[in-house]
Amino acid sequence: MTITLSGTAKTFGDFTAVHPLDLTIPEGSFFALLGASGCGKTTTLRMIAGLEEPTSGSILLGDDDITHLPPHKRPVNTVFQNYALFPHLDVTENIAFGLRRRGVKSVKKQVEEMLDLVQLGDMARRKPRQLSGGQQQRVALARALINRPQVLLLDEPLGALDLKLRRQMQLELKRIQTEVGITFVHVTHDQEEAMTMADSVAVMYGGRVVQLGEPAELYENPRSTFVANFLGTSNLIEAEVDSEGTDEPDELRVHVVGDDATLRLPRARCAAEGVDAGTKVLVGVRPEKISLTRTDGADSASQGGSADGRAGVPEGRNRLTGRITDASYLGVSWQYLVETPACSELTVYEQNVSRDDRLTPGAQVVVHWRPEHTFALDATQDAAAGEEAV
Ligand SMILES: Nc1ncnc2c1ncn2[C@@H]1O[C@H](COP(=O)(O)OP(=O)(O)OP(=O)(O)O)[C@@H](O)[C@H]1O
Ligand SMILES: [Mg+2]
């Protein structure tokens, strides 16, 4: 069922945990609330569950106003981080708990269905302490789903698992959601987790949703420095809108502050409002979109270029000259830091495909990328917002 929050807010004393929130969570979607610790994710979830009463605003489930309905009357179940399984009951009885409480006598068939769904058929008679963290998590999920809720709320359900198991369970959760087809609202502070699983992600910051969209939309088109830095890494470069080309309908040209360079980007990818010649913006580009071409050695010679920085760089790309200051091996890729006149640390990821000609600190390079891969943000924000916020 579609969940609609309208002006839903929560204050504790004089502290506002959630500012009036307007949010529509479509029926059958896997929806993630993503944000750093303390931004109001759990409070929002608890309001949907009925465990916290909104200070103002309303919550609808489909067309029904459930704002003042007690938790047990809502067709909503919650799975918490610590699972809260009953230690003295085996897997079957843990899963059957909700049915038994409602006086359902024959639970066997439904429990079996759930055991199949979470793939724990051969562990039906084990106690929770005889299960791994991931298996306990599945029991908690089955225990919630057997009540056939219309909405399942998950508050950091994978938080206690180690990284590898987490990744595995993310795919598993997604499979289960697709199979049962009900609305999942998933709270996490892990951006990769939100992006892997969710159809839509609401990024929260300081009790507000700052951006909402599909994972790729958020990643490719961040509208604020917080989202640009919190979801992955962004290079943000100070620039001013160039007087030339301001009448171009589709393209924006900017001049990099402190460097003799002009960059181009699609006008639609500029989140700053009212851009005129001279308006300051932060130009952004993701590290994996950038290519490096060496200008002081092998590359330029072999490609027949000169050492002036034009070597081997296709026409029409945005380009800056710089010097490698750090190279780290990440297995799947290399991460380079590049110092340019305007920016002391541009981050570049290069896929680890060829093992020759590694760039080493000190190498002179041109960093270049396609104008379409460039975005721009309002420069009045803190350029480092969201960098450390995990
Ligand atoms: N019962 C309460 N009384 C007072 N303040 C509260 C209460 N519950 C939450 N808060 C505050 O509201 C803010 C939001 O809390 P919330 O639990 O929603 O954060 P969160 O996004 O879930 O964080 P985390 O990732 O750490 O779980 C926090 O600053 C928290 O201290
Ligand atoms: Mg929380």
From TrEMBL:
EC id: 7.6.2.11
Pfam families (UniProt xref): ABC_tran, TOBE_2
Assigned keywords, A-Z: ATP-binding, Cell membrane, Membrane, Nucleotide-binding, Translocase, Transport
Domain of life of the organism encoding this protein: Bacteria
Name of this protein: Spermidine/putrescine import ATP-binding protein PotA
Family, per entry: Belongs to the ABC transporter superfamily. Spermidine/putrescine importer (TC 3.A.1.11.1) family.
Domain ABC transporter span(s) in chain numbering: 3-231
Keyword Endoplasmic reticulum carried by entry: no
Source species: Streptomyces smyrnaeus
Reported function: Part of the ABC transporter complex PotABCD involved in spermidine/putrescine import. Responsible for energy coupling to the transport system.
Residue segments, region Disordered: 293-318
CDD domains: ABC_PotA_N
Catalysed conversion reaction: ATP + H2O + polyamine-[polyamine-binding protein]Side 1 = ADP + phosphate + polyamineSide 2 + [polyamine-binding protein]Side 1
Entry keyword Transcription: no
Subunit structure: The complex is composed of two ATP-binding proteins (PotA), two transmembrane proteins (PotB and PotC) and a solute-binding protein (PotD).
GO molecular function: ATP binding
Cited InterPro entries: AAA+_ATPase, ABC_SmlMolc_Importer, ABC_transporter-like_ATP-bd, ABC_transporter-like_CS, Mo/tungstate-bd_C_term_dom, P-loop_NTPase, PotA-like, PotA_ATP-bd
Transmembrane segments: none
